[in-house]
Write a structure and sequence with these properties.
Number of domains: 4
Strand order of the largest sheet: 1-2
Shape: globular
Largest sheet: 2 strands, antiparallel
Structural class: mainly alpha
Number of strands: 6
Distance between the termini: 46 Å
Number of helices: 20
Radius of gyration: 29 Å
Low-confidence stretches: 1-6, 73-112, 214-242
Helix content: 55-70%
Strand content: under 5%
Mean pLDDT: 77
Length: about 425
């Protein structure tokens, strides 16, 4: 979306509803962008239900009436009527064969505009759920999951691979019909456009349904028919592993200039460099990239963490982890995390300090404590600490569920693992 288009949409909104809060204008602008509005002529195709995720019914009707008055002129009406004329000759000379090929070609691509005519299967939803929706009550997580399952089944009948845009359109229809029951609300305030959580649930369900048909990578080959034993080595018992979001999970070939011997030499060199505090970081990065093939082979063979720590010590520090993650997923770990922290982290902290602070006395004390700590230090790492602590407090979780505190002088090998939670835990000094 260019600056010109953004200005055009904001101007169109402000002309009709000048007193609308800036946050609501942002949400409405995002909604119009997602609908594909690019010119004033596009406004005539918008319906009231398209705007109910951002506006109240009266506001929606008001802007629609104003926009349609502005774009509906005799010229636009005539141009829309005469658009894409069908030559009569084509109709006269069309044969049964051509109509069959036409219908068959259209049936090959059923997902082009299916979402525009998709009807929410209200009649298939459980009676209990419909009672909650009609009475403007929030459905329980169980009822919501059941609703998502039914929706995805219906969506995948229309299209075998619904996109995020498709899920967004379906979520908008749900929220427009029952905003009180389904809109994203925290402490009485609508979060974002109000339908993101539904979109995510739909996408997760679609991914789960598709998982059984998604190609997977085998960790071992099938046994041959002439195998003379039924015994399978322990390292070969795991048959299939999902690749999830990885783009380079199972590397098939060594780099052209590499051999097994050269890989071993580089591996030993990395071990030696890990013992030196002044190791050349660029060289470490290069060696980690070149030995990625061997690293993945050992991981996919099911080697345990202790063995991998001994064989690939750089994996367990920031540089080596970042290099391996980039090769594995194609995503820069630190850069992506920092970028999201800048955008979403600041927004979250601002919410906690302005709106969330009114939740209860305990949370207010947590926010005040974090502010005192921030006066002593201010950095990206401080943002992360504050977010984690405030998220735990906001959802009434205990700190020891995520953190295990030790003395400042405690070394990694001195941590008493019997006292550490079995769930993922951060050991903090």
């Amino acid at each position: 979306m260019t600056d010109l288009e953004t200005t055009f949409l904001r101007t169109a909104i402000t002309e009709v509803l000048p007193d609308l809060p800036e946050v609501t204008k942002d949400i409405l602008e995002e909604t119009l962008q997602s609908l594909g509005v690019e010119t004033y002529d596009d406004f005539q195709f918008i319906e009231e239900s398209d705007l109910l995720s951002a506006l109240r019914p009266i506001q929606a009707r008001k802007v629609l009436a104003a926009w349609k008055r502005k774009c509906q002129t005799p010229e636009t009406s005539s141009s829309s009527v005469s658009a894409s004329p069908v030559p009569p000759a084509t109709l006269r000379h069309s044969s049964p064969g051509s109509s069959q090929s036409s219908s068959s070609s259209s049936s090959k691509s059923p997902d082009i505009d299916w979402v525009d005519t998709f009807l929410i299967p209200w009649d298939k939803f459980p009676e209990e759920l419909m009672q909650f929706l009609e009475r403007e009550k929030r459905p329980s997580p169980r009822m919501r999951r059941e609703m998502i399952r039914i929706l995805v089944n219906e969506m995948m009948r229309k299209c075998s691979c619904p996109s995020k845009r498709n899920s967004t359109e379906v979520a908008k229809k749900l929220v427009a019909k029952y905003p009180k029951s389904l809109q994203d609300i925290i402490e009485g305030d609508v979060v974002g456009p109000g339908y993101h959580s539904l979109v995510k649930q739909l996408q997760y369900r679609i991914e789960n349904v598709k998982r059984s048909t998604t190609p997977k990578i085998r960790k071992r080959k099938h046994c041959t028919d002439d195998s003379d034993t039924d015994e399978i080595p322990p390292e070969q018992r795991a048959a299939i592993q999902d690749t999830y979001g990885c783009v380079n999970w199972d590397v098939k070939f060594l780099p052209l200039e590499e051999t097994p011997e050269s890989q071993q030499e580089k591996k030993e060199k990395l071990k030696m460099m890990s013992r030196n505090n002044d190791a050349n970081l660029e060289e470490v990065k290069s060696l980690m990239k070149l030995t990625f093939y061997t690293q993945r082979k050992q991981v996919n063979q099911g080697e345990n963490i202790k063995y991998l720590l001994e064989e690939w010590p750089f994996w367990f520090n920031e540089l080596g982890m970042a290099v391996h993650f980039k090769e594995l997923t194609g995503i820069g770990l630190k850069e992506t995390f920092t970028r999201n922290l800048e955008v979403k982290g600041k927004r979250l902290l601002n919410y906690f300090s302005s709106v969330g602070v009114n939740k209860n006395k305990k949370f207010m004390e947590a926010v005040t404590k974090c502010k005192v700590m921030r006066e002593q230090a201010s950095s990206c790492s401080e943002d992360v600490k504050e977010m984690l602590l405030l998220l735990l407090s906001y959802f009434n979780e205990k700190e020891d569920a995520m953190f295990h505190y030790v003395e400042d002088t405690c070394l990694a090998e001195e941590v008493d693992m019997d006292k550490v939670n079995l769930t993922p835990t951060l050991v903090a000094c």
